[in-house]
Amino acid sequence: MNIVCLDMEGVLVPEIWIAFANKTGIPELKITTRDEPDYDKLMKYRIKILKEHNLGLKEIQEVIEQIDIMDGAKEFLDELRSITQVIILSDTFEQFATPLMKKLGWPTIFCNTLEVAENGEITGFKMRVDKSKYTTVKALQSIGYDTIASGDSFNDLGMIKASKAGFLFKSTDKIKADYPEIPAFEEYGELLEAIKKAL
To answer: pTM score > 0.90 for this model?
Structure first.
């Protein structure tokens, strides 16, 4: 029995924080998990920048409402879900993901949650589990699933390496160079064929 685990941002939808950085003109918010492997450090940095600029959840959600999913993402996901089970494993937050899941046809997503004050200020975040993608893949394997995983960033490497098959998708040149043993694809058609072969 197989289950495919996909990253969300950079694979199915554009990076939320980059879109928000572009909208607000705050370049410091362009740093993502492609640049910073330590997610805890990255989120604390983001929250600090938001506080400095007096920006909260409402402003981010307004930008997310305007984000379009990547060209071909829904068709890819629909076809994949017609042949196997799929879970999106993301380090994003429930408060960010909902409008994007609607555009993708409501796939299953496991993600984290933000701590938000009454005035909308983001005060912290709660991770579902430590090393959430890797831990989830190992848990799925413990209940009898073979996992196939794909993502684009440092925080996807754990689940990719722990799976029976794993692929980089639209990743950076640095990550591809550092992990030449992981097949890397740029087009949904190529990724779909690779997953089909691994099933």
So the answer is: yes
